[in-house]
Amino acid sequence: MSGAREALLRVAPGGVLGILGGGQLGRMLALAAAELGIESHIYCPDPASPAFQIAKQITCAPYEDEAALTAFAAGVDAITYEFENVPARTAAILSAAKPVQPTVHALETTADRLTEKTFIRSLGIGTAEFRAVDSHADLAGAVGVLGRPSVLKTRRFGYDGKGQTIIRPGHDLSESLDRMGGQPAILEAFVPFVAEVSVIAVRSDNGSVRTYDLVENEHHDHILDQSIVPSRLSALVEDQALSIAATIIAALDYVGVLAVEMFVTSDHTVLVNEIAPRVHNSGHWTQDACLVSQFENHVRAVCGWPLGSTERHSDAVMTNLIGDDINAWRALAAEPNAALHLYGKLEARTGRKMGHVTRISPRSR
Ligand code: AMP
Asked: Ligand 1, closest atom to CA 190?
């Protein structure tokens, strides 16, 4: 997959990368950029952004503030983001001024579950069966075809299980649709999966693609709890999943890191659930188990540097520290073979990602 041409250099050492979004992902991107001698300018409306603590330049302004966006773009060499719901107008203003990667096209394709799943299917890759749902009649028809249980999701702005509901036998359809708050929705067949997995892939603008090893993910209350590498799945499943991610990232003509979340069924079928056009929680283990992390590889790709190794040198189990879990920081810090990453968030609210710990052991396979 390696292209002969060198990637176009956008940010050299000493240059400035603009990052939209100031959460933990923006923070870890900025830390990785710093390792390469690249300065970060973080743009985020929230004054309490964790990424603000570690960046030399910050802009605290709404994503709709055109003057602030223009000034931000003028002061950076290239722009990327840590979240997928960048308003279209914001992306358009920034793209007109400076290279923005991943592109608006990638954002648009993945922002809407209907567009995203239609795109994935067009590549010959499997997803759960789905139907668009815009009305009560659509929902009744879709449930008639896909059966129960099935999963009703908003087309946009869903993450960590937000904006979705399972339609079980006996459930009232009107009530389920009302829970979507009048937003366009999609009904998916329920996938009786045996495992949830993801692949973190990176592509440079010369077309080279690299993938990290298959990750097995366990969720708790719809939030990622643990990522385990190597996964306990067969080599056949791993090969399928890596090739699906490589096909998707190339088809999007994408530059940077993306994550593909997938279901594995008992007959070893791999179905794509969703694409995240950004660095991803299920790739945090790469910081401590690989030579070059997902964050550094994203920075390398968007800045036009050669991609770094995605090889894994250790086995890893990454555990998220959610809410009060952070109170165990002292015991975690004392653990041998554990790398502790805390995000600098002051208030440990329920369900809030406060940090993660990655436990490392020698590579088993
Ligand atoms: P999502 O918001 O699409 O990432 O879904 C959140 C979680 O809901 C997934 O990690 C799965 O555990 C579950 N889920 C989503 N879609 C389906 C489906 N079609 N069948 C079964 N479980 C699903």
From this structure: 20
Q: Which atom of ligand 1 is nearest to the CA of 273?
A: 3
Strand 39-43 to strand 57-59: parallel, antiparallel, or no bridges (unpaired)? parallel
At which residue do the structure tokens 């490392």 appear? 360
302-322: pLDDT as tens digits: 999 999 999 999 999 999 999
CA torsion angle 357 363 364 365 (round to 10): 110
- Please report the pLDDT score of residue 1 as a whole number: 45
Determine the pLDDT at residue 101: 96
Q: What is the pTM of this model?
A: 0.97
Give the three-class secondary structure for 9: coil
d(CA 36, CA 11): 11
The tens digit of pLDDT for each residue in 133-183 reads 999 999 999 999 999 999 999 999 876 667 899 999 999 999 999 988 889
Contact call for residues 360 and 340 (beta carbons, < 8 A): no
Using the mean position of ligand 1's atoms as its centre, give its distance from the Cα of residue 55 in Å: 35
Cα distance between residue 35 and residue 12, in whole Å: 13
Cα(116) to centroid of ligand 1, in Å?
15
> Ligand 1 centroid vs 222 CA: distance in angstroms?
8
Mutate to test the pocket of ligand 1, among 151, 165, 219 (most ligand atoms within 8 A of CB): 151
What's the confidence (pLDDT) of residue 3?
Answer: 45
Q: What average pLDDT score do residues 24-35 get? A: 98
pLDDT of 170: 93
Residue holding tokens 């555990």?
Answer: 319
Nearest to 292 by CA among 281, 304, 278, 306: 306
Place of tokens 């000034």: 71
**Is the separation of the CB atoms in 23 and 83 below 8 Å?**
yes
Q: How does residue 4 score in pLDDT terms, banded at 50, 70 and 90?
A: low
Compute the Cα dihedral for 179, 184, 187, 191 and give only its sign. negative
Report which secondary-structure segment, H or E, holds 259: strand 256-265
Measured in Å, residue 161 CA sits from the centre of ligand 1 at: 7
Which residues does a 6 A CB cutoff place in the pocket of ligand 1?
128, 151, 158, 161, 164, 188, 190-191, 196, 219, 222, 273-274
